[in-house]
Amino acid sequence: MVHPFYDRNISQPGERCRIHRSIERWQSFSEAPDRLHQALVGYSFTGAAPLHSAIGDGDEAYSYLSAFLATRAGGRLRFPDTQYYEHDGNDATTVETPLTFASAVCDMLPKSWDGTIRVFPALPSHWKDVRFDNLLADGGVAVSAELSGGRLVWLGFASRWKRRLRIVSPVLGELAQAPLEFALEPQVPRWLIRDD
């Protein structure tokens, strides 16, 4: 399973192509994510976004989230809070798709699998100013980071338990060599800060 457990992931040989083919097959029922269609609604948008994030394609992930809102979930979006209905009528509103929308945004920020925390693994190219605080990675590691003007300003980690961390990020190069590996002491945050 690719998402949310990353049992199959881009760290494994050949999986990036396999995941991409799976997404293409699923989405082939539609001409494009921003076109109204009946075959794909709701979760077809918010489910495709984290799959694209899983292969590092933040622009495509963003396009599905944007299309979800722009097409009003294939014409079914009812409320500003993203509640929508699956069938004709007003009696079948759903909650899981709005929740997966929020989760899909978080999937672009920190993700972790196979003992590695990935910071900003799938940012859309036009997101130049991004900040998040204390989002949890595997093992309960709280991750915080900020980009300003597309440059990493700071990166922080905290944990209740002593552990070794392995960090990778497409924007890490300004602060440290990637992958970054270090020991994290319990209750003692570790910060990397750009000094210019």
Automatic annotation (TrEMBL):
GO terms for molecular function: alpha-L-fucosidase activity. Coiled coil: none annotated. InterPro entries: 6-hairpin_glycosidase_sf, Glyco_hydro_b. SUPFAM superfamilies: Six-hairpin glycosidases. GO terms for biological process: carbohydrate metabolic process. Gene3D superfamilies: Golgi alpha-mannosidase II. This is Uncharacterized protein. It comes from Boseongicola sp. SB0664_bin_43. The lineage of its organism: Bacteria, Pseudomonadati, Pseudomonadota, Alphaproteobacteria, Rhodobacterales.
